[in-house]
Amino acid sequence: MSYKEKLDLQRIPQHIAIIMDGNGRWAQAKGLSRSMGHQQGVETVYNITEAASNLGVKYLTLYAFSTENWNRPQSEVDALMTLILTHLKENLYMKNNVRLRLIGDIERLPDYVQKTINDCVEHTAKNTGLTQVIALSYSSRWELTKAMKDMAEEVKSGALNPESIDEKTVTEHLNTRFMPDPDLLIRTGGELRISNYLLWQCAYSELYFTPEYWPDFNAESLYKAIYDYQQRERRFGKTGEQVRTEQEG
Ligand code: FPP
Fold it and tell me: Is 127 noted as a catalytic residue in this protein?
C-alpha cells in the first residue's frame, strides 16, 4: 500500500522545506561526474514539486545553493547555475499553476542569472497554486545579519522604535517575510544537521532525515515523510494535554 493512501488529506503540511543533499555521492556511486548528480537532482525537483502541488502543499522551499557553496570549484558553481537556469525555463510553472519566488543574496549572482530569475518570478506571479521558493546564495546567518543591519538603520533614522521590536518585527525583516514558517523540514542524504538553513523559521518545524540521496527521493518518499509528520504531535511548547483539549474544542 502506498503511503499516499495512508495520508490524512486534511492535515497536509502547508509549508515543506527541503535540504536536497546527496547529489554528488549519488553520482560518485554510479561512476558519474558530480554535475550529472545535480542534473538528476533537477529531475527530482520537478517530480517533488508536482507531487507536493497535487497534494495541496502551499509552499515548497528548496535549498539549491548556500552562501558557502560559492567556495566550490568554479566549474561546479557554473554547472549548477546553468542547471538552475535551464530548470526555470522549463514549463513546470505554468503547467502546474506554480508560482516561483527566491530567497537569498541574489545580488551576488551573475547579471544574466538574476535577469532570468526575475523574468520567471514576474511571469509566474499570478499563479495561484503552490509557491516554489528557491533558496539561492542563501544562508540563515546572512539573512539574520542583514535583518539586524536593516533594523539598526531604521532605528538610526527614527523609523523604528527599539522598544517596539518583537519577534514579529524580526520576522518582517527576513527574506521569508511573505511565507509561513515550515511545518516540515526534510533533509535527504543522511546527514543530521540543518546547515544554516531557515534557522529562525524552523523553530517549531518537525524535522525528517532520510539516508536517500536527493536524486533517489521520489513522490513515494515524500508521502512517507508526510505520513511520518502526521504521526507526530506538535506542541509548540505546550503540554500534550493542552494541545489535545484545544483540538477537541
Ligand atoms: C547538495 O548535494 C546539493 C546541492 C548543493 C545543490 C542542489 C541543487 C539541485 C538539486 C539542482 C538545482 C535546483 C533547482 C531548484 C532547480 P551535494 O553536491 O552536496 O552532494 P554530496 O553531499 O553527496 O556531495
Answer: no
